[in-house]
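User: I'm new to structure prediction. If I give you an amino acid sequence, what do you actually give back? Let's try with this one:
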Amino acid sequence: MSLLSFNRLPEAEKRRRCIDLVPVGLVDHVLSLGLCPTVIAGGDPRSYEDEAERIRTFAQEPAALRLIGLPNRGELQLRVPAARFKGDYALGIDLADVGGGQIELAFIVINDLASPRFDIDRHNGMPTLLGTASRNIEAEVAAMRAGLGPCQVRRGLRLLGELVPGLERFARALGYVSLQLRPLTYHVALSYERCGFGYLDGHRRMLQIDREFARGGALARALDGSTPFRRPEQAHTARGRSWAIHDGILEALDGKDWLELQMFKVFGREEGIRTAPGLIDARPARTE
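Assistant: Good question. You get back a string of structure tokens that encode the predicted 3D arrangement of the chain. For your 288 residues, that looks like this:
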């Protein structure tokens, strides 16, 4: 089976198969905010000790989970809850069949909907594409001071380490053998490393970045306080480095301010790559 075949299944069957894509912590988060009262009315899924049953009960409710996939397209979108809450979803996943037994994670967001929102995605009424096309500097500074990384509008739920194994189970059940993705930011790439991913493109760049943020390196020297995102202490944390890279500090290396990475995971295998093992917040598993 493929995503194309999946999209042709009956709705109830698709929802049953998608429980692997929804961490139980996400179910509890959405229900705790009262976003799916009809689920509670029919029996609170949190009362089930079996986690799979909790998620299955949740996923059958249309207001809890929305699947978007055309019968003639090898693409699938999942949103939880089904409608935005204060402008955002708790979980958003976009998947695409890229051929050769490979599936692409084209988009993912995991939001703590109870946390403050930082409008880095809009500036003067126009979208910024999460700060990649234009920037709302004031909102970015506030987000950074609150402990968020670039491209985050809210704090995460620290569920990536639970979501990746579920995504692997879902994809393997459809016959896929590997997963590809393009992380937008440095600190997220490090999180995927700790979930077993390797690099199709960008491994040397990541190693170079780690070397040059070390004492005396070109990137460490460029942390000169010239902007709020270039403070010397940022060399020592993944998010600190990530903000500096978002601010264009890579120009100090070779004149190119972008970070282009492509990562992969062969299902059932851990690549064991660590491009920045000494960073204090480059940790595995439970992350945004």
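You can read the tokens as a compact description of the fold. Here is one thing that stands out. The chain is about 35% helix and 15% strand.
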